[in-house]
Each structure stands twice: as C-alpha cells, then as structure tokens.
Amino acid sequence: MDGYEQRTLLITLTGRDRPGVTSRLFATLAEFPLTVADVEQVVIRGRLVLGVLVTYSEGADIGRVWNAAERVANDLDMEVELSTGRDKKRKKRGGRLHVTVLGAPLKPAAMAGIAGRIAAGGANIDRIERLARYPVTCIEMDVSGADPDALRAGLAIEAAEQQVDVAVQQGGLHRRAKRLIVMDVDSTLIQGEVIELLAEHAGCLAEVAKVTEAAMRGELDFEGSLRERVALLAGLDASAIDDVRSHLELAAGARTMVRTLKRLDYKFAIVSGGFTQVTDALVEDLGIDYSAANTLEIKNGRLTGGIVGPVIDRAGKATALERFAREARVPLSQTVAIGDGANDLDMLQAAGLGVAYNAKPVVRQAADTAVNVPYLDTILFLLGISREEIEAADAADAS
User: Fold this and answer.
1) How far is 151 from 79, CA to CA, in rounded Å?
2) Is 303 exposed, middle or buried (0-12, 13-18, 19+ CB in 10 A)?
3) Spatial contact of 208 and 195, defined as CB atoms under 8 Å apart
C-alpha cells in the first residue's frame, strides 16, 4: 500500500533567539496527544526560525493546541504561524545527496541557478546549512530524489556559468566514517614546483618549466618528461636541495586542514612525482601518516641527473593510494584524492572522492568535483566539517 493520509499541524515560531525556546514549545505540546513528525530549526544573525510538524488523531481538540502555541509565542515575544493539513505518508524519496557550494563571493544569482537546476531535475532540497562564512562562503544542501550523475553534470555547467564550485556526493553514514586523504604535493600541498626551484639553482628554469607545463596538461608522458627534466639538473650541488627545502611555502590553509583531519583520526598521505629529499621533511613537519615520492640520485655531493628506483608516475600514484588504503584498513570508497595535474588522474578516479584543486582543465573535467579557490582547508567543507567546528577545536586545544 503506497500510504495513508494523516492530519497535521505545522507550528512555526520566529523571533529573537534565546535559550529555552525549543524546550518551552515542546513542554507545552507534551500536554496534548500529538506525535512529532518533523522538526527544523535555524538561527540567522540571532533570529530563530523553529518549525515543528505534529500529527494528531481525528478526535483531538486541535483548537486547544492552537491556543497553547499562541500563548507560548506571546510569552516569548515571538511571531507564530500555524497551519493544518492532511499529508499522505509516502515512501522515502531515493537518491539522497549532499550538494556543497563554495563561492568567493557567493551571489544570489548562483544560488538561484543551482536551486533551479535541482528543481529542473525533479529533485527536492530538504535542508540548507551554512558551513563557512570565510575565507569562502560555503553552503551545503541535502537533496533527495535526484539522479547523481545527471545532477552532477547539470550543476557542473551551472557552476562554470556562475563562477562557483559545486560538489555532489552520496549521502549516508559513509560520509562521516573514517577516511583516508591522499594529496599531491607540488602546487597542491605546497606552492610551486620543486623541480623548477631546483632548476632555478641550476640555471635551466625556462627549459624545465616548459616541459613541466606540457606534462601537467597531459601532453607528455610523465616518466619521460620527469627523466628529461632531472637530467638537466646533472652536476647541481646537493646543497641546493637544502636551500629549496628551507624556502618551501605551504598552500594557504594546509596546516589547518592537516591539523583538523588528524584531530578527527583521519589518515593523511602525500604522493608526489617530486622527490623524497623534500617530501620527507613535510612528513616530519606535518605528522603525515604515509608518503611516496621519487628519489634523486646523488653522488659525491652532486645530483647525477638520474632517479633511484622506479618512477612514481600517474599509475604509480593510484597504486600508492591503494597501498595506503590497505595499510590504513580504509575501503577505497572512503578515500579522498586531491591533485592538480594530469599525472593525478588515475588517483582521482580510483578514490571515493576525487578533488581537482586549482587544476588544469583536463583534470577538472575528470574529477568528481573541483575547488578553484586558493585555500586548501576548503576541502574540509566537502567532508561536512564546518568552519565553526574547526575554530572550536582550535580554541579547545589552545586553552
């Protein structure tokens, strides 16, 4: 049987927020033979909107309930709206999704376009919540009744038109489950490309940068391009590595992101087409759990222009992700991969969620979602972690 009709009363209180509003309303409703069907509450700039949907039997004296709710509103100096109806109880709508919107700034036209795309697909927005107000505005919506692939495709078009970032993820308990985050290093965790910084010391920056750009766009085989670039460094004094390492700059928000994930017992890993001589220092500095990178060959205090062992390339990054997941005992569906170049594509596609971070067009098109703002900690919002939660944890640790 598809369902049955039930009598309902929707009570909506609006006014200045203060302690005890919710408990006062429910204490009053407890005096009547009602069943709570739904509750929603939001506070915007100190103003509370509380909605309570209750059901009642045909013989109930709903007039008394109505009068009691009005008395609560008057006592609290709030506005109240009441409406009765009959709702048909149906099976739950399928396809529950999280839609995360990032904007800097986030304008009404963007939200209108996104909401319109959701509605056009026959889906419904069940809940809207702000996760962050800075360094970007982040709004998250719970959406039901949508086809994930169709919605993702439509919202990707809208995001490009509105110049915002939009992520679509499956809902459910798995989002809050333990996860493994695997991240590229150059131009992702850190600013710039290590090999180009070394090339600047060796006096061959222009040649190396040209090959790097072609490789990032996917125009050149990564292993061949890496060996070609490293060969140009032959003879460079190994002390140049120390200088580069000492001048590395983390991406904005990197420390906040890693610190927050570690607090939540997430495992964090880096996988790089760069070099262990640099990534090992990042592992120690940030407390990273797993890492994989290439190793420059050094003899008699100078770079030989060669690499020791097999190269960590596009396929190697995906293999490293799978290995880290096994060691952390995390299913691939619970992994997040973050990268910016073509050599990250296999890793992004293997992960449960692939995030293109300030990436090349070929990577943005292939990833599950793209983040195009220069703040790495915005990745946390995609995991449902709010700015307020981050700040509260920081404050608790500082006290």
Assistant:
1) 37
2) buried
3) yes
State which amino acid sits at residue 290.
Y
Structure token digits, residue 395: 């404050």
In angstroms, the CA 312 to CA 292 distance is: 8
Please tell me the distance from the alpha carbon of residue 242 to that of residue 278, in angstroms, as a whole number.
8
Residues marked active site are found at 184, 186
Q: Which two tokens stand for residue 144?
A: 């039901």
| Cβ burial 236-271 (10 Å sphere, 16+ → b, else e) | beeebbeebbeebebbebbebbbbbbeeeebbbbbb
pLDDT digits (tens, 9 = 90+) for 149-169: 899 899 999 999 999 999 988
Q: State which amino acid sits at residue 326.
A: R
Residue 310 φ then ψ, to 5° = -65, 150
DSSP per position, 6-49: EEEEEEEEEEE--TTHHHHHHHHHTTSSEEEEEEEEEEETTEEE
Task: Write down the pTM of the prediction.
Answer: 0.80
